[in-house]
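User: Um, any thoughts?
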Amino acid sequence: MYKVILAFRYLFKKRISYLAFTAVALSVFIVVVVMTVMRGLVTDFKQKNHNFSGDCVVAGDSLVGFAYYEDFVRTLQGEDFVEGVSPVINSFALISRQGSARNIGVQIMGIDPVMHSRVTNFAETLHYNRHNVAGAFEPSRDPNHTGCILGIGLVLEPDSNGVYDYYGAVLPAMALSVTSFPLTARGTLAKAGLGMVSSKTFYYSDVSHSGLARVDGAMVYLPFEQAQLLCMAGVEKRISSIHIKFKHGVSLHSGLDKVSALWKDFVKGKGSEKLAYLFENVTVQSWKEHRREFIAAMEKEQTMLTVMFALVGVTTVFIVFVVFYMIVSHKSKDIGILKSIGVSKTNVVGLYLSFAFLLGIFGSAGGLAGGWVFLLRINAIEHWLFKHFRFQLWDRTIYAIGDIPNKVDFGVLAIIVAAALFACLLGAFIPSFKAARLKPVETLRVGQL
């Protein structure tokens, strides 16, 4: 009982304890806020990439693509673990508005909008044809023309809150010339001389807002057949990739294994075909592997922040160490009295470690409470700062971010509290043993009383 009483007395009666309490609470507050926001951003970014790609992608590493895909698509559609399949053509092109000499380099994505929406969230990214995805490539002013869908960053600018001001109920009539360089199966240009490029006029039919800045600022979606004509020359039809979505309940690992096995059998069966060599660089990947180039940067930033805040924890350890060292130095007579009445070294150590534990509990509680309240109001605080001082954590005209993520993960909170308790106990460990080694005969000499 005396250990608990003395621990509480040291915690609330000694002003120097407030320094350690403040250090622990402030460290926990900062870590909770920053890690919650960063974790939310990374999770949201991963989810957007998952939505963009589907669960699994069969793709090559060149613009040439691969042939005989129709047979494999039919095979996948007949499997009971597959929810949807979408063949896709990826390439690059130049676009220019009709009557303008200015060309913009863009990425082309040739898709069947209905098939692609079964695999990804493509329909949800559309503004005008969200509920009529089959008509996504039909311009509202003239459905007889061939339409194209532009990434929202190519045509609209967000306001300071990241909100886009759309044109209205009907899109303006806008003709776009799309120019591409069709490639043969060998990777050479299909045309020579002045006519080496293929051009076609498309009419603006919708915008796509995926939430991925690199996609929304550079992507033009074309009807699958038109993209094939513009980019893939030759008798045999070719595509760049096949996107696949698994049925609910099928794990990513299990689905990948099944698709990989089907792909190996398919490639083996097509080994005697003329364009079978195109399969050499085609791999079966999960959405994480397929989008690794983009996801890895965010994950690296998250790792760096974790390391940085581990250093904050080290600082907390030193602060607790100094506080406990000073308390032991100033309370040597209390320790001498305790030891003179038979308190063991182990109990002295336990006394100060109990004090450290209480310090960690109360400091963590204060930091968690402050962090939780701050996170609940973080978006309101940012709006107020922007309104009065034009300050934003992230410029919404540059970053594809809506509200700042503020959803607390209780698993992360538990880890942070455990780390704070460990830091307090570690900081108090050496001073506790110093206190246990004090001898009553030295601390209770008459000249020192």
Observations:
- Residues 2-46+295-448 form one domain.
